[in-house]
Input
Amino acid sequence: MPKDGIGASTKRREDIRFLTGKGRYTDDINLHGQAYVHFLRADVAHATLNGIETQDAASMPGVLRVFTATDFDGVGGLPCGWQITDRKGQPMQEPKHPIMAEGKIRHVGEIVAAVVAETLDQARDAAEAIVLDYDELPAVIDMKAAVQEDAPRVHDDLTSNLCYDWGFVEENKAAVDEAFLAADHVTTLELVNNRLVANPMEPRVAIGDYAAHDDSSTLYTTSQNPHVIRLLMGAFVLGIPEHKLRVVAPDVGGGFGTKIFHYAEEAFCTFAAKQLKRPVKWTSTRSEAFMSDAHGRDHVTKIQLALDAENNFTALRTDTYANMGAYLSTFAPSVPTWLHGTLMAGNYRTPLIYVNVKAVFTNTVPVDAYRGAGRPEATFQLERVIDKAARELGVDPAELRRQNFIRKDQFPYATPVAVEYDTGDYEATLNKALELSDYAGFANRHAESQARGKLRGIGLAHYIEACGIAPSNLVGQLGARAGLYESATVRVNATGGIVVMTGSHSHGQGHETSFPQVIAQMIGIEPDQVEIVHGDTANTPMGMGTYGSRSIAVGGSAMVRATEKIISKAKKIAAHILEASDADIELKDGKFSVAGTDKSLNWGDVTLAAYVPHNYPLTDLEPGLEETAFYDPSNFTYPSGCYICEVEIDPDTGKVTIERFTAADDFGNVINPMIVEGQVQGGVAQGIGQALLENCTYDSEGQLLSASYMDYAMPRASDVPMITVDHSCQTPCTHNPLGVKGCGEAGAIGSPPAVINAVLDAMHRAGKPVAHIDMPVTPAKVWAAMNA
Amino acid sequence: MYNFDFVKPSTVEEAVAALQDDEAQPLSGGQTLIPSMKQRLNAPGTLVSLLGIEALKGISVSDGVMTIGGTTTHATVAAQADAYPALAYLAGQIGDPAVRNRGTIGGSLANNDPAACYPAAALASGATIVTNTREIAADDFFQGMFTTDLEEGEIITAVKFPIPEAANYQKFEQPASRFALTAVFVAKYADGVRVAITGASEEGVFRWAEAEDALSNSFSAEALSALAVPANDMITDLHGTAEYRAHLCKVLTGRAVSAIS
Ligand SMILES: Cc1cc2nc3c(=O)[nH]c(=O)nc-3n(C[C@H](O)[C@H](O)[C@H](O)COP(=O)(O)OP(=O)(O)OC[C@H]3O[C@@H](n4cnc5c(N)ncnc54)[C@H](O)[C@@H]3O)c2cc1C
Output
């Protein structure tokens, strides 16, 4: 057995290059003759754009060309990858999303013009000479105001600011309403899921390049899914066939969802490079990132839970307003619907569920998937309303959950919101978390805090998520305009080393370490014999990239399937050389042997024979050892877990500190426990950020108030406690070959409700009961709530 | 950033001469000025770096007064101002290591950010701001947000802090920037107590006179119990209301006093 196969906490091999400054990020790429673009961005939220005066700018030193919306003849708008059908069976309203503002400015940060020049400073200087002629319009910011009849329209060609009014499951609505009438207890909660900015450490970068000799274009970009960008930009925006377009996403410094989408800057650089016959580079400043990277979350929700006299959940109903921003970003419509409504059953047996979502256009930056995407929004409201119900009923929140769990013996379990959970054991993670957090010992710690004049509270939250996105035929029925399989080509070289070309993309997840562990295990060689190649459409098979915790579950499965083909072929070669039947060949520890004999061949002997086929079954078998597999999952995977948070509050200042945090997750089988632990810790840090610190804020005029780190609070090391992470509760996925579920988003999904439940628990215990405080629970808000 | 000229004189006289140019501006640690230039919010024609002037660096103590050169970094004060521990502590709370290794006391006081730390220490200590032309009492120096008594081209060469019997700095951080959301510096001298508050007021750093009187009579947190800072002039922003800041003024003053007594 390889010493670093499945289950080994191998150190991340990519970290050597990242930590020694040898990573090769998009901004590290500089092409011969490269020019630079500076985008002039709107500083008002809503305006009629009458004209743009570019003449002075165009004649400034170093300027190659100034572009405005009228320069994109034959260029399409940025496509939306998901169409939602509303309650009445009508398609959502889908406005054009131009590369630059056409006739109207719709959000602060929207591109109105672009200057390409020899240097970036020259481009910036020239941009200052551009004169915009516009008439400001009243901005539409608040979602509920936006859907009023007389609200100003973000898009004049739409009938309203409502993108869609979605009901799920519409047929259940009447039954749900009846169950509420029959309920013994109804708990109601209104809450906001705060708007966030993803803030990956590496800002976005795009470099367009055009090769006249073969009329081909290359885009280097900070993307989580270069093939998706190639398809969307090539087919829908620029009209370049895939064989003339290459998209490269090299080392990418964090994505968190915000680098899934196809952005205007990518299309612009590719387009301008061809026009100017010069490479064109754009590197986002942090300020630009705040107003041009797709934002996350931003839901306003009313949720109601109905219970019977025995405290069983009988029905659940939610009304959500989901902010789309000014345009539909690539996957925006799917987030509040299929990634959110389908998760409303959570870990519970609630038999009747109805979810209504109104997606709304506003004069703000587009909103799209951010770590968890829809699932954190679902989990937060559900786990908050359950805690509120427990408080109202005077029962222990852990026990109310336990009572309503889907039981271990009920899987596979079809929820009333269209998904079927394959496996799970929610009591196991609950018990594990209660044990690891020393739930029973809380009273002592509470007394100790109290003696120091502090409030102390404990809160828990369960979560379920749908990962391993996704069965293509299913998502197609739900409105996806893409398939969601994954691909891998496994190329075995003559001397036995292996290169895996995967359609997955690593931007921090550690694929280069964990993927080889799987192959090492399957063949019985060491992982350092395996190299992972990703991120370049020129040398990887068409794949859908990395998001939705899908890499190991879908991309890893494709790699397993391709490796199975390799092993099957290698056995045939071995059988030929060993003069045995292939059914008798066994592969173990990198050795092929004939069962029941001492005849064997090493892995390298067989791989060499595949490429030097002298003694080879050429009539039956092609030479070479290279296989490709495309894997389309038959279901989502359903990781779940229980998070317990313990906080202390300083009553004089309202400051919340997280004293303890426990995460007990069920990710099914785990390839590299250390990487999984890191993913959970990072996710929890982001969840703590959302719960305590981060808030993207607009004023009523549509100005972005939290437009830099001076006002947008990111979590730092001192905000994040030591986290106890456990993934010993494992109910392997039943439908993928590795039995894996995915772990990338769990931390960000389960932690916000655990933190908020703990804060409110502390206040309750101190005789300051408050039904709810919206995130982030800043010191000022906590203090105000306690002194209301 | 726009183009600019850069000079690095080695004496105060040369620096003052270079600053006669209307477009010239002194540069110290650059932790405030450079970011604003990068954002093109500030466009000096010439930057006159003060960092080549040896006479502006370092800390000395004599006759109960600590004198800190205008270009002394926060890191140096944090490490070497042993004779005035509360001041050393304050310097160690500014920003992060990179900021502390570059940023200077002269730059901080000249900038007079309403959420900056040093103004509270200078005002609470009754410090004297020494320039190339004169000496300015802290009480006269700070004139509201980002405004000081400095003339065009005037350079802070040193700051003189009378060392108190005891002092304490309580900083409550703004969650995003980690500047002071509100911070209080309490300094106890033989002839009375001074309390200066930063981060809270629309008028910038200020002295809380009622607290000073009460504490000069009886130096204990209880002495503050009947007092309250009025909320009218306090800042309301994303991170806290005027009422919250007014409340913090009292809480933090009490904590500073408790820490001393
Ligand atoms: C990330 C970050 C965090 C920070 N956190 C804090 C914090 O928590 N608390 C805090 O108090 N500050 C904080 N600061 C500000 C920091 O302390 C700065 O160093 C300081 O405000 C300015 O000092 P400087 O030497 O960098 O001045 P510079 O940026 O060089 O100059 C600032 C201004 O003062 C003028 N000037 C500089 N020196 C003199 C002089 N000797 N005489 C006359 N005019 C002069 C300049 O012309 C300029 O207008 C932070 C800064 C950053 C970047």
